[in-house]
Amino acid sequence: MNKTVSEAVSLVKDLKNALDGQKVRIMVAPPFTALSEAGKALEGSSILLGAQNMAQAESGAYTGEVSPAMLKDVGVSIVILGHSERRHIYMEKDELINQKVKLALSSGLEVILCVGETLEEREKGVTEKVVETQVREGLKGVSKDELGKITVAYEPVWAIGTGKTATPEDADSVHKYIRQVIAGLYDKTAASGLIIQYGGSVKPGNAKSLLSMENIDGALVGGASLTAENFVPIVKYDE
Asked: Residue 108 burial (CB < 10 Å; 0-12/13-18/19+)?
């Protein structure tokens, strides 16, 4: 929940100037109020427009919610679902998140499905169990063909906005485990082809060490995405 419309437009224009033509896929996900104008500012750019959340229904008595059709209408092509803050502040359960995932896919949107454990769960040694449940339940009813439209983002809740970061080795081991879960649900080809991002205090100083790991394919950037000065070096970590 950051940026007014004018602030969001200013930022995406800076990103467009600095990042157009990059070989990696880049997405920005402004708040709902800024999506329309940010989308206009990104026209002609390779940067994709994403949304931070979406309703589980196409229309109707869901006051305060935003439907997939509304998102597509302003140029959104990807939606983030199951973000830790949606799970832990707004108490969204796996079943609801799965409804959203299936609706997004049937509406022609790509999905970033977020999974991750709390500090308490990590200290109890149940990280893999928690993450596996979130992956399995989040992907219920999703076909192998549809899996190509899904990115999984591993975001340890204890590392979000705290300044704490999972070590590259810790993060990579969970990413590797997620691939094993996907291989069990689908097959090894699906598992190796799945894009898995890391999210949790990613910043210019640690981007290269994280993104150089074998199983980490990208970053879901939080606070560091709020300024071009911090976000651009993360995208260009390998230059």
From this structure: exposed
Sheet-wide strand order for 27-28: 27-28, 48-51, 78-81, 110-115, 150-154, 195-198, 218-219
pTM exceeds 0.85, yes or no: yes
Q: How far apart are CA 82 and CA 9, in angstroms?
A: 26
Between helix 5-19 and helix 228-235 the angle, nearest 10°, is 40
221 has pLDDT over 80: yes
Cα separation, 43 vs 31, in Å, equals 18
Structure tokens at 160: 């979000």
Q: Is residue 212 pLDDT above 90, yes or no?
A: yes
Q: Which pairing describes strands 48-51 and 195-198: parallel, antiparallel, or unpaired? A: unpaired
5-235 architecture in CATH? Alpha-Beta Barrel (3.20)
Q: Find where tokens 């069990």 sit.
A: 184
Query: Which three-class secondary structure state does DSSP give residue 7?
Result: helix
Q: What distance in Å separates the CA atoms of residue 205 and residue 26, rounded to the nearest whole number?
A: 19
According to DSSP, the β-strands at 150-154 and 110-115 are: parallel
Q: Report residue 119 as tokens.
A: 């500090």
The token duo for 88 is 């832990």
Active-site amino acid positions: 83, 155
